[in-house]
Amino acid sequence: MLRDQSSDRARREANKAFKPVKTQKPMNDYAKDQHSFNENRERLKAERLAREAKPKGHSE
Predict the structure, then answer these.
(1) Residue 31 to residue 35: CA distance in whole angstroms
(2) What value, to the nearest 5°, has the Cα angle with vertex 33 and ends 35 and 36?
(3) What are the b/e assignments for 10-46, b being 16+ CB within 10 Å?
(4) What is the pLDDT, as a whole number, of residue 47?
(5) How far apart are the C-alpha atoms of 42 and 51, rounded to whole Å?
(6) Which of 3, 15, 21, 58 lies 20 to 30 angstroms, CA to CA, from 29?
(7) Are 35 and 27 in contact (CB under 8 A)?
(8) For 56, which DSSP code?
């Protein structure tokens, strides 16, 4: 029983060490454009929310 447990444990450790790497498909032009558009939109949204959160009396 103890021997079976140690081999199972060794097998689990080996599976962790040698687990397959998930590969991503290369993005096509449309996906790249969408990704950059979404990143830019999120950045602009964060900037707008930061501006709106400032008190009205303070101008830079």
Answers:
(1) 6
(2) 40
(3) eeeeeeeeeeeeeeeeeeeeeeeeeeeeeeeeeeeee
(4) 96
(5) 14
(6) 21
(7) yes
(8) T
Predicted confidence at residue 34, as pLDDT, reads: 94
Global confidence as pTM: 0.47
N residues, the chain: 60
What are the φ and ψ backbone dihedral angles of 23, each rounded to 5 degrees? -100, 145
Residue 51, both tokens: 């501006």
Give pLDDT tens digits along the chain (60 positions).
455 677 888 888 888 888 777 777 777 999 999 999 999 999 999 999 999 998 776 655
